[in-house]
């Protein structure tokens, strides 16, 4: 019993700062405006852990018009936050990044992706673990695939000693997440996970890549 109590305490503390521990009752009730890209906007898709963190990071980048949280990479149709939390849908928490190619290139977005998470972690980013949090760089053209693969080869040689586990996957279908997940970090700055994980991760990225940030950041 003495051993069980500290184990349960650790497990409870973990749940409090887990991306999946979120209760919908905690959300800020501010309504979200539907984003409508213009004809020149392109979209890229990336998965690298909790989408609250990833969305906030990409939205801080100059040339990015909007980032939308959702699910991709699996075969299950119409996944939900609860269903992907089981790790059985094949999907990962993914962010659709809408960007102006005249202001930021796909190659730069790939740099942001690899520079804002640990691509050597199998199935997760601390403190979130499971296939739904795995690292995936999606491509839509052979040119995009080559950009991703060249980046991986360079990083494996210069930084990670061949240990990158990021999946390079052709994009097929993106399912937008429930409305209350959109702009979650921005709308819920005092939520436990946001304060403990999301904001520190965003600040770490900003410090690492100040030249890529929007002026207001």
UniProtKB/TrEMBL annotation:
Give the EC number.
1.8.4.11
Q: Name one GO molecular function term.
A: L-methionine:thioredoxin-disulfide S-oxidoreductase activity
Reactions it catalyzes: L-methionyl-[protein] + [thioredoxin]-disulfide + H2O = L-methionyl-(S)-S-oxide-[protein] + [thioredoxin]-dithiol; [thioredoxin]-disulfide + L-methionine + H2O = L-methionine (S)-S-oxide + [thioredoxin]-dithiol
Annotated SUPFAM superfamilies: Peptide methionine sulfoxide reductase (SSF55068)
Q: Which domain of life is it from?
A: Bacteria
Q: Peptide methionine sulphoxide reductase MsrA domain spans which residues?
A: 44-194
Secretion signal span: 1-23
One Pfam family hit: PMSR
Tell me the enzyme class.
oxidoreductase
From the record, give the transmembrane residue ranges: none
Sorted alphabetically, the keyword list is:
Oxidoreductase, Signal
Residue positions of the active site: 50
Carries keyword Chaperone? no
What PANTHER family does this protein map onto?
Answer: PEPTIDE METHIONINE SULFOXIDE REDUCTASE, PEPTIDE METHIONINE SULFOXIDE REDUCTASE MSRA 2
Output the HAMAP family linked to this UniProt entry.
MsrA
Question: What family does this belong to?
Answer: Belongs to the MsrA Met sulfoxide reductase family.
Role according to the record: Has an important function as a repair enzyme for proteins that have been inactivated by oxidation. Catalyzes the reversible oxidation-reduction of methionine sulfoxide in proteins to methionine.
Q: What is this protein called?
A: Peptide methionine sulfoxide reductase MsrA
Encoding gene per record:
msrA
